[in-house]
Design a protein that fits this description.
Catalytic activity: (2R)-O-phospho-3-sulfolactate + H2O = (2R)-3-sulfolactate + phosphate
InterPro entries: ComB-like, ComB-like_sf
Helix content: 25-40%
Family: Belongs to the ComB family.
GO molecular function, one term: sulfopyruvate decarboxylase activity
Strand content: 15-25%
Structural class: alpha/beta
Radius of gyration: 16 Å
Shape: globular
Cofactor: Mg(2+)
Bound molecules: ligand L3UKIRZJ, magnesium ion
Amino acid sequence: MRVDVIATVNEARSDDFLHKTAIVIDVLRATSTIVTALEFGSDGVIPVETVGQAKALKSGREEELLGGERYGRKIAGFDLGNSPFEYMKEQVKGKKIILTTTNGTRAIQKSHKAQHILVGSLLNAASCARAAASFKRDIVIVCAGTQDQFSLEDGLCAGSLLEELLAHESSLEMGDFARAMLLAFKQCKGRLPEAILSAANAKRMVRQGWKADVLYCAKRNIYDIAPLLTNHVLESYRPPQMRQACSK
Ligand SMILES: O=C(O)[C@H](CS(=O)(=O)O)OP(=O)(O)O
Ligand SMILES: [Mg+2]
């Protein structure tokens, strides 16, 4: 099995995903928010690229919510923003969420040619790796990045996924960028919050008042689900138990 890591969404070409499993990462914050929504009982998340697409999809049924951000803030007329804390509430239970964010949902769209599309974050790295390994295909990990720039927290999450994948597949082949992310992760595994807080995207988010979000998104392996895209909806998938992975 081969794993490659793509540094930003704009470096991804749709043909890179053919016949493969894609894992899309946007630690701050889209994929952490998606994992949280599903963990807290949302019925499914529909990721879309534009605000117009999100509004057009909303059918007016009570069991649907519009979520997302532009410039980090809730979009006018939407029910929810992009903070994971908004998705822990009773409000999301049993609801489908139509979500559009600047980087994360765009990266999910970009992976549409993959055979399987999983959503990864630090919160669910072990279960996401377990799900990906169970599909027995080559894997492409896409770091969404921030407005077309590489983001360290996405790279560290890719490294965490690689460490977990190696526990399932000792003969994993990987490209040099993937190897670099694995080494970077191993280097700061014991101090992930500090490493993430030192990076540009987190610094900007802290300035905007989102420090609690950054610290929450830096927690590793606290949830055991792997969002899997099925008919355009991300649903909670609990991967089969396989060989014991690294976890902590
Ligand atoms: O809301 C977020 O965390 C970001 C906003 S920004 O583009 O980084 O300002 O969106 P995301 O798609 O989760 O990266
Ligand atoms: Mg982001």
